[in-house]
Amino acid sequence: MAKQKERDTRPEAADMTPMIDMTFMLIAFFMLLINFNKNVNDQAVQVPPSTIAQPDGDIEDEITRLVWNVKQDDDGITEYAYRGKPFRKDQLVAQMESLSAELVASGLVLDKDVLIVIRGDRSAPFGDVFEIVEAGRSRNAKFYNFQFNTQQKID
Hints:
- By secondary structure, the protein is α/β, with parallel strands linked by helices.
- The protein has four helices and seven strands.
- The protein has helices at residues 17-33, 92-105, 110-113, 126-136; strands at 49-50, 64-72, 78-82, 85-87, 114-120, 146-148, 151-152.
């Protein structure tokens, strides 16, 4: 009898090149989608419409924008958030004062270089939204420039 050639039973190594290519393409795709903006706009906040709303384009790019989100939860309690971190109403003054001290220490002039942008949800009471202005104008915070965000009303 003729001797049969033994088969190689070791599994073949798969070519990983396409897998690596796809991984890098996915990384590049998601890097394009990531928002590196420090200011966090809470998507749950629905700003009210206004007939006098204008785009942000006329504000200088060098100005530092501090975006505060204000919304009301299901229980009717107003929630404040800065850069995604939630705050209670009684913490606003202390947070504004520490933020003010931090910005002044970094060399910014509060009346020229800083703008507080307030995104108040249309369901939040205006008095609660205005608490941010009151806290920002407290004795030790001394912020001067405030902007309320609305959406442009289209007739």
